[in-house]
Amino acid sequence: MNRVGLRLGGCFPVASLIQRRAVSYTLPSIKTLDNNKTTNTDFQGLFSSKTVDELWYKRGTHLVEGLNQLLEENNVSNRPSDLNQLIQQTFNKPDLFGVYAYASLLHNLQFYMESLKPNTTAEASQNVKQCGPEELLKTPLIADVYNNEPTDPALRDWISNSFGSVAEFRTLLLNSAKGIKGDGTVWLVAQAFYSEKTVKNEKNQYTTLAVMNTYNAGIVNDSIRSGQVTKLQQQKQAKADFLKRKQLERQNAETEGKVEEVIEEEEGVEETKNESKTDDLVLGTVEEAEASALFLDKKLIPLLAIDASPRNYLLDYGVYGKQQYLDNVWDCIDWNVVAERAPVRSKPTIDYI
């Protein structure tokens, strides 16, 4: 039996998946959760022991078994030891969508659970409670007083520089999680921007932090997302080229004096004819502007994940307990783990003319 290092977020090793005979994966070990299971104790300040069993051991085992089964059914050979590589290899293959989905969900679950530590303060256990409908009437505010701030000076400075303050970051992070309807995860990511002129061997310079959401089996992976945008742009260009070609054929037929009607094989030919008469300096759509900069010029490294799906709070906090759950998650974030995942920050320089 060989231990295979699992790189989450495509960068830093966090835990391990065990790969037997390069065939199947098993649920990785997380020391804190294993201790809770052995002693049948709660994850202090966040989850009851029953919820931990449901979220990690039962659901995690289900995901691992589903992944292994689909790998066997689809005869996937030469499986990479890196779960991110498996995700990237299966993302653009519709027949392997199930493999991608199970691998991504397992990746996100592990990343989230490894971001947490028990809250050992005296009042922590009192906050794990069923909540009533009055919780829906509370106005989101920037908390003046809160616990569990990041202690690493470099991480604190980076957060303050990116979001204004730790308090503003906390509000953005938790409100982004609260706004997720259904299954989804909110992430803290480090961003590196680069251009086509960047030397290939030059290291990515991570300058800013950002908060982003993914849904269902979505994963923070810039190569996957940039591939999506590139593929859509290629499809759009291919369609435009086809329509222009049909337009040219029509014009040639008319020039040669052919009076028979040329059957148009694609809708939108007339639109393309009008577009060809437009000025090249005319701006495109908002969607085109966003796509031109969406993930095509940046690298992302996930530092923190919070699973905002209903399954995480329904058992212990009830239907109305999402906000209390999120407040408790903040108090249980292991900032040491977040700091370890963070790349070296590159502070921008100011050029004076």
From TrEMBL:
Pfam family name, one: Sod_Fe_C
Ribonucleoprotein as UniProt keyword: yes
Source organism, top-level taxon: Eukaryota
Cite a GO CC annotation. ribosome
Region labeled Disordered — which residues?
A: 256-276
Q: Which Gene3D superfamilies match?
A: Iron/manganese superoxide dismutase, C-terminal domain
Does the keyword section mention NAD? Answer: no
The protein's UniProt keywords, in alphabetical order, are:
Ribonucleoprotein, Ribosomal protein
Using the record's annotation, list all stretches that form the Manganese/iron superoxide dismutase C-terminal domain: 154-210, 286-341
InterPro entries assigned: Mn/Fe_SOD_C, SOD_C_sf
PANTHER family in the record, alphabetically? 37S RIBOSOMAL PROTEIN S26, MITOCHONDRIAL, SMALL RIBOSOMAL SUBUNIT PROTEIN MS43
- State the protein's purpose: Component of the mitochondrial ribosome (mitoribosome), a dedicated translation machinery responsible for the synthesis of mitochondrial genome-encoded proteins, including at least some of the essential transmembrane subunits of the mitochondrial respiratory chain. The mitoribosomes are attached to the mitochondrial inner membrane and translation products are cotranslationally integrated into the membrane.
Q: What is this protein called?
A: 37S ribosomal protein Mrp1p, mitochondrial
From which source organism is this entry?
Answer: [Candida] anglica
**Gene encoding this chain?**
MRP1
